[in-house]
Amino acid sequence: MPSLSATKPALPDLTLLTGLATPLWLVRAEDGGVVWLNRAARKLLAPDAAGGTLRMTPAGPAPTAATERSVTVRGAGGEALALTVRIGPVPGCDLVLVEAPGDHAARQEVARLNEQLVALSYAYPDLRFELRRDGRILDFAAGSPADLGIPAQRFLNGHIQEVLPEAAAPLVEALERVAAGALTANPTVKVDIRLPVNGATGGESGAEGDAVFEARLVALSDDGDRILCILRNITGRARAEQRAERAHRLLLDAIDSIGEGFVLYDADDRLVLFNRRYRDLKISNPDLAQPGTPFESLLRDGMRRGLYRIPPERAEEWMARRLALHRHGGPPMEVQLADGRWLRIEERRTCDGGTVGLRTDITDLKAHALELAAANRRKSDYVNHLSHELRTPLTAVMGFAEILRDQLLGPPGSPRYGEAAAQIVAAGDYMLELINNLLDLARIEAGRLELHEEECPPALIVDATLAMMAARAERCGVALSARLPADLPVLWGDPSLVRQMLTNLVGNALKFTDPGGHVTVSAERDAAGGLILAVSDDGRGMPPERIPQALTAFAQIHDPTRDPMTAAEHGSGLGLPLTAALVELHGGGIAVDSAPGRGTTVRLCFPPERVMR
């Protein structure tokens, strides 16, 4: 190292100061000559030290206390380095200890990088502001000034609060944060702002007419008084994100609106989401059914709470089947819950290894299936009954026909042949009635029975019905009568079907009324203005709980094998169901009131619109 001074004063022990990172050197107070430097000072002052003797100006008397001073260190070649240093006296000698800021080199590097950042900012389409901490604009550059829709001259000698009032609040707050953090490890702040463009106002961020900017602010000076603000137009990205979020919400709403319970598990078999219907089914503990819960934990919790109606001895087998369906997929699985509900469970694997599941409440379908099974059993029973009903008159027809053919009762003039022919006619009439009832019911169920409507005077129809059923009533030993008011209105309907309804009801009443009983046909107006035709008897009646069965096709209320009182009676079991269907075809309804030993009353209720005033 070249000589630092012509005469070297006696120096104190400087061993501990040599390795410090803070640049230190000793200077003679009278002329500013540098007599000693530590390694950090040599590195800082190396360009000047290379030229020869170092001197620091201004020189002067040794200070009595440590103080800061702006000085210039000059080398022998005249090179100068301006520094702000801290100087203080050295006890016991006429020397001054000079201390340069320890991070001077680092601060110079930061300043250099900031200058490069400012230079680079001009090469990009972002909007760049250089600001004071109070918001005053020192400089402005814009690759695309039309993005803001503001004349460039408004940025000169202005404040950011005046130029961009809509974004003033978030920007001023960001400026304060940057200024406060300039001397810390995080001098950069990012904030999103919305700016109305071309006179547009208000609205949601990224809405049509608005622009969304990402603002990045960084301190350019140590004290945070010079701040670089870069605005990047991210309107397209913001709108794309909004569209994606809107589509995501729409998808979630759609999933939430479907009628089946929807549930999704990720590839690690942990719950991701479920919809409202799944929650309403109450098949999972709400405290446990949270995102992140494993499926097996939910399943075992349900088993522990007795959610499923499964015999204890089959619990493990059912659990294994259920886990296999969940993990590998397969045909739908039906399970009954403890409260009687039935669930249909379908699960499929997703392409990323997750599982999507549907839960459908099929309780009503199960009940309907049971009803269909019961109806099929009733039809099977009815087929057996119908075969008996057809076989009996058909056997009589064939037997009496053979008697007539073979003249088994004597010469052709015998009066007994007339009785045989009458039996054939009666059996044929019954078979024809049975077949007609079957065909009528089939046409009604198929919607092919048409009404031929005209005026129907109830008194005439009742008289015709009683006249036709008088002989049968006499054979049964039952009195048949009518009770009709004189001012009865005319009914608008199909006369033949109205008479058929009354005939069916009177026939049923005669069948289940003992000799000496009484059957009455009556009519009245109801409170709504409709017309009621009623058939009442004082016969055997039936329990009220069996009335729905009596109104069901192919059902038999009185079983001849169990009820000896009806063993001699025959019937198809179609009278009441067919009558109910015919009155419903007229827009009305049927009501049955009955009890064992108290008889039965059946009312045909026609609506007011079928009553002619």
Automatic annotation (TrEMBL):
Q: For this protein, what is the EC number?
A: 2.7.13.3
Q: Which CDD domains match?
A: HisKA
Name the record gives this protein: histidine kinase
Question: Which Gene Ontology molecular-function terms are recorded?
Answer: phosphorelay sensor kinase activity
Please tell me whether the keyword Zinc-finger is annotated for this protein.
no
Keywords assigned by UniProt? Answer: Kinase, Phosphoprotein, Plasmid, Transferase, Two-component regulatory system
Q: Which reaction does it catalyse?
A: ATP + protein L-histidine = ADP + protein N-phospho-L-histidine
Q: Which InterPro entries match?
A: HATPase_C_sf, HATPase_dom, His_kinase_dom, HisK_dim/P_dom, HisK_dim/P_sf, PAS-like_dom_sf, Sensor_HK_Regulatory, Sig_transdc_His_kin-like_C
By its UniProt entry, which Gene3D superfamilies does this protein fall under? 1.10.287.130, Histidine kinase-like ATPase, C-terminal domain (3.30.565.10), PAS domain (3.30.450.20)
Q: What positions does the domain Histidine kinase occupy?
A: 385-610
Identify the Pfam families for this entry.
HATPase_c (PF02518), HisKA (PF00512), PAS_7 (PF12860)
Question: What SMART domains does the entry give?
Answer: HATPase_c, HisKA
